[in-house]
Amino acid sequence: MRPFLSAALSAALLSGAVSAKADAIPYANLGTVAPTTIYTATDTGTITGYFVKGGKLSGGGELFTDSIRLLDLTTGTQTGWLFNSQTTTTGTSANFGSVNKGDTLVFELLVQDLSNTLSIFSSDPALSDDKYNHAYLTQFSGGVLNGALFPAGLYAGMEDTNVLTNNNPGNLDYVDLTAVFQNVTATPAPSPTPEPTSLVLLGTGILGAAGTIRRRLTR
Question: Residue 49 in contact with residue 82, Cβ under 8 Å?
Fold first, then answer.
């Protein structure tokens, strides 16, 4: 693994010399399980991941120690566990293996809780210990996350809470280990969250259509 940012670029970012804007990332439906999404390899080649943050030592607020690996269900291969959430530096990159275009992929999270109990949670509910989805996806156009500059790709937020035994649903925030991956496609692609203005316009359009139908029915 190697840091994605050079020292010069890091200094430029801190001084404000480089301006970059990230997409809206936080999971909007706090406390609910994210929709299950199918991952596939975009092209034949390698998948590169860039660590954003996770535990307290990496700039996040999480106490558990997590790491992530990639399963290629088409070829039956898998990587080792990468990106320790407590010790990995923001911007560190890692090779998540070679793939063929169209391969079906799954991300898995190895979780060590405060009592040292180990669990495995997955983007495929069938492979999770609690049978729930533990990955949230959104397209990312590139920019600054956690103080570092990242390339465009697919942002993945992983959740290390056991849904069956969790007593605090607010823990389902999908920020326990976060990373950006290149050469991965989500199917169906995550739908962008409408801006508040768009929601107002949509509501206005629905009300207008309802009024038109009502007038026709009363003629």
Answer: yes
